[in-house]
Design a protein that fits this description.
The protein is mostly helical. Helix content is 76%, strand content 0%. The radius of gyration is 29 Å and the shape is elongated.
């Protein structure tokens, strides 16, 4: 009896059909947003051009401010403080552009990216940027000490020590990391064909200059921003091929 009455009640009130209509009304009132895959625009390669310009300008300002004689006095700190200050203002923006450049280069590899070489590539990029920032911080400390230290002997000692440390970090360690950065990237390019083969071979030559020749001349360090400029221009001009590979 009870079962029969329950069946009659359920047939009189068609709850399943009402629920279905309610779900339809809710879905029509609030449609589910369509998700899109986030992709890197090719125009982001402009960050590499910006890095090349800012880094080269900052590097030229610093190198032109520091005398070639390692035993030079502290007169250059007061006479050329404006150049060093301008370099310190440009370098943070160059570092930000370099991070964007690294992201664009990595996105260029797409699914062809290798974990081993990508780890070396990314780690060397981070180490390079960190050492450049430390070197510029030491340059700022030299300027600050020239204003606060009154004793000429102490000021000369602090300036010489800071100068040696700054050049050791930037010219020995940072640029060696830049060389490792280029070698790992050139190896991936050579094996995958993402970039022209000639660019990969030229990158090996640039890395050799950064690893060996920079100890002979400080101005050879400008080959790194020049290399980044060429790579960025190729990315802007040449269509990507990584996404076409199954």
């Amino acid at each position: 009896m009870l079962r029969g009455r329950g069946t009659a009640v359920l047939s009189r009130y068609p709850f399943p059909s009402a629920c279905a209509r309610y779900r339809g009304l809710v879905s029509e009132a609030s449609p589910r947003p369509r998700l899109r895959r986030l992709t890197t625009p090719r125009a982001a390669a402009v960050a590499g051009i910006l890095f090349a310009v800012l880094f080269a300008a900052s590097l030229a300002l610093v190198r032109s401010s520091i005398p070639d004689d390692p035993l030079a006095g502290t007169a250059w700190v007061h006479e050329r403080s404006g150049r060093v200050t301008a370099a310190m203002l440009l370098m943070p923006f160059a570092g930000i552009a370099f991070l964007w450049f690294v992201g664009v280069v990595r996105d260029r590899m797409g699914e062809l990216e290798d974990r081993f070489f990508s780890t070396v590539f990314f780690a060397s990029a981070v180490l390079f940027l960190a050492m450049v920032f430390v070197s510029m911080s030491i340059a700022g400390a030299i300027l600050a000490s020239s204003r606060s230290v009154t004793d000429p002997t102490t000021q000369e000692a602090v300036t010489k020590f800071g100068r040696f440390v700054m050049l050791q970090i930037s010219n020995v360690y940072a640029l060696r990391m830049a060389g490792v950065f280029i070698i790992s990237l050139a190896t991936m390019w050579l094996r995958t064909g993402v970039m022209p083969r000639s660019m990969a071979v030229a990158s090996y030559l640039v890395a050799f200059v950064l690893l060996v020749v920079t100890s002979l001349s400080l101005w050879f360090t400008l080959v790194f921003p020049a290399w980044a400029l060429v790579v960025s221009l190729i990315i802007l001009i040449r269509p990507a091929v990584a996404d076409d590979v199954p």
